[in-house]
From TrEMBL:
One of its GO terms (molecular function) is GDP-Man:Man(3)GlcNAc(2)-PP-Dol alpha-1,2-mannosyltransferase activity. The chain crosses the membrane at residues 23-42. It catalyses: an alpha-D-Man-(1->3)-[alpha-D-Man-(1->6)]-beta-D-Man-(1->4)-beta-D-GlcNAc-(1->4)-alpha-D-GlcNAc-diphospho-di-trans,poly-cis-dolichol + 2 GDP-alpha-D-mannose = an alpha-D-Man-(1->2)-alpha-D-Man-(1->2)-alpha-D-Man-(1->3)-[alpha-D-Man-(1->6)]-beta-D-Man-(1->4)-beta-D-GlcNAc-(1->4)-alpha-D-GlcNAc-diphospho-di-trans,poly-cis-dolichol + 2 GDP + 2 H(+). This is GDP-Man:Man(3)GlcNAc(2)-PP-Dol alpha-1,2-mannosyltransferase. Residues 375-544 form the Glycosyl transferase family domain. Residues 1-21, 75-113 are annotated as: Disordered. Keywords: Endoplasmic reticulum, Glycosyltransferase, Membrane, Transferase, Transmembrane, Transmembrane helix. Belongs to the glycosyltransferase group 1 family. Glycosyltransferase 4 subfamily. Residues 122-330 form the ALG11 mannosyltransferase N-terminal domain. Its EC number is 2.4.1.131. InterPro entries: ALG11, ALG11_N, Glyco_trans_1.
Length: 572
């Protein structure tokens, strides 16, 4: 505070007599008071703005509710009509419709439990790119489906910037792309006109700050269309949630984070030397105005990000990796603000909610039993696009080492095979496949390696039934859906000792391993050997399958609803 005497204030105090020392004191008191009051002023301004928004949008809210109620009525009328038509057909003749009757009966008895879950408020999802059809969108739609099933009276609203797409088209795409069927009457799309503010191209400089500022503009846009009862961001726009909290303290906010906005690696490069200025590991980076400015910018941004992150009521992440990073960024401030107090068991209240993987289909398609052991061959399966980071080289080398040792020992007659399945997207992929074939030739394993390019799903399923071991050679893969699929199919995984496969997927079940981790070619070769000579492979397969269950759609829904419960509890 000593340095706040600056410019005109200092000059005037120096130039005048002792009577003006009162003036200085008054000035400092004023500065201190303003400083102390600033948070209150800030909050007051926020809630006034929020109050104004609520008034202004009340009409829109009412008309949305009315539209939804009308839609629901006509939807049910339509359903009744269809059911009646079916009944007509039934009475007309054939009675081979027993299954349908049964299905309807169970469906209606399910509806009878509605009473326990009758929350009928509005939950809105901030997802400006909702029609993109990627993994992030699968999470959004699965979350909405779970919410609709649990609270049939709840209204789901999605704020999106996809102007050109109508609701029916979006829902149809969700059905085709993800096989997710949503209940149309209680879902609405509200269209944002400010999406360009979050495009990286809008902010060639200070992109992080620019996009975050843009997301606040977009949040204002969204909230002036409708003020919801619960506000959830599923795209990583933490600042939108922070802004909502400023306007409406009483509206619970939730975030599903795929990836932190600022990485802890970036921040780590600030830490050691920032105070001394010019010493330490990253001395080079801070030298010069530019470096120092950049450092200050990141630090300021990280502080703002943490402050916003600590205002969010319920935080979920898509993996342990993301959880660890978000915890490092937001955790300390969240703990200070008492958010972590709501945590149940662990030292963090940030939940890991894995995105849903289609595990059930594989469980259905691939048998894992004593009988199916006879079908399994000594096949190592590696399903991956032929991209450089998938590290097929390493796997070929490891496989060659493994075969060589095995032949030297010469006790076994049957030769294991390595089967590489992958899609080839372009010329550079084809070239890579060619080089891999050359390498296999050089390593003398040409006849022991099979390439299957662009294999159709039924063929892949067939390999998942025949193979014993599933391989993944990529370093630091964030997750690895393919490895989950190996496990669901009962394959014993041999994966790179890093990233999601190591942290999240190939972990122990009941204190027993479900697969092997390896880093070097020799380690992989060893792991292949062990995986193919297990005394009781079936037990491993069963554990692997159990392990995959953590990533089913059902598991996602269960965890999502847990977090929704926490959000709704805040409403009371
Ligand atoms: C989480 O999201 C990031 C960013 O989209 C992605 O790279 C990662 O694979 C995701 N993790 C899971 C478990 O899907």
């Amino acid at each position: 505070m000593e340095r706040s005497c600056s410019g005109a204030a200092c000059d005037s105090s120096r130039g005048s007599s002792s009577s003006s020392s009162h003036g200085v004191a008054a000035f400092f008191t004023a500065v201190l008071l303003t400083g102390a009051l600033l948070p209150y002023i800030w909050r007051m301004a926020g809630s006034t703005l929020g109050w104004y928004l609520r008034q202004r949008t009340e009409g829109q809210r009412q008309s949305l509710l009315e539209t939804m109620a009308a839609d629901e009525k006509s939807f049910q009328a339509q359903q009744r009509q269809q059911a009646a038509k079916k009944d007509e057909k039934k009475t007309e003749g054939s009675d081979d419709d027993w299954e349908n009757v049964e299905a309807e009966a169970t469906a209606s008895s399910g509806n009878g439990e509605k009473g326990v879950s009758d929350w009928d408020g509005i939950v809105s999802f901030f997802h400006p790119f909702c029609n993109a059809g990627g993994g992030g969108e699968r999470v959004l739609w699965a979350a909405i489906r779970a919410t609709q099933q649990r609270w049939p009276e709840a209204k789901c609203v999605v704020y999106t910037g996809d102007h050109d797409v109508h609701k029916d088209a979006i829902l149809a795409r969700v059905r085709d792309r993800f096989n997710i069927h949503l209940h149309p009457p209680t879902i609405a799309f509200l269209y944002l006109s400010t999406r360009r503010w979050v495009l990286a191209s809008t902010w060639p400089h200070f992109t992080l700050a620019g996009q975050s500022f843009g997301s606040i503009i977009m949040a204002w846009d969204a909230l002036s269309l409708l003020v919801p009862d619960v506000f959830i961001d599923t795209m990583g726009y933490a600042f939108a949630l922070g802004f909502s909290k400023l306007l409406f303290r009483s509206i619970p906010t939730g975030a599903y984070v795929h990836y932190p906005t600022i990485s802890t690696d970036m921040l780590a490069s600030l830490n050691p030397s920032s105070e001394v200025g010019g010493q330490g590991v990253n001395a080079g980076q801070g030298v010069g105005m530019r470096g120092r400015a950049k450092r200050a910018y990141w630090q300021a941004f990280a502080w703002l990000y943490a402050s916003v992150g600590s205002s969010i009521d319920v935080v979920m992440t898509n993996s342990s990796w993301t959880q660890a990073h978000v915890q490092a960024l937001w955790g300390p401030l969240r703990a200070k603000k008492g958010k972590a107090a709501t945590a149940q068991k662990t030292d963090t209240d940030i939940a890991v909610v894995y995105p849903p993987v289609a595990v059930s289909e594989l469980e259905h398609e691939v048998e894992v039993s004593a009988a199916s052991e006879a079908v399994r061959e000594k096949v190592l399966l590696y399903i991956a696009q032929f991209r450089p980071e998938k590290n097929h080289h390493l796997i070929l080398q490891a496989f060659a080492t493994f075969l060589k040792k095995r032949r030297e020992q010469a006790q076994q007659t049957d030769t294991p095979r390595l089967v590489l399945i992958g899609s080839v997207r372009d010329d550079s992929d084809s070239k890579r496949v060619y080089q891999l074939r050359l390498l296999a030739n050089e390593l003398n394993i040409r006849d022991d390696v099979e390439f299957h390019l662009d294999a159709p799903w039924p063929a892949i399923l067939q390999w998942l039934r025949r193979a014993s071991v599933g391989v993944n050679g990529m370093w630091n893969e964030h997750f690895g859906i393919g490895v989950v699929e190996y496990q669901a199919a009962g394959l014993i995984a041999v994966v790179h000792d890093s990233g999601g496969p190591q942290l999240d997927i190939v972990t122990q079940i009941d204190g027993q391993p479900t697969g092997f981790h390896a880093t070097t070619a020799d380690e992989f070769a060893d792991a292949f050997d062990q995986a193919l000579s297990l005394p009781d492979p079936l037990a491993w397969r069963e554990r692997a399958r159990l392990s995959a269950k953590r990533f089913t759609e059902e598991e996602f829904e269960r965890k999502w609803l847990e977090q929704m419960d926490r959000l709704l509890a805040l409403l009371k």
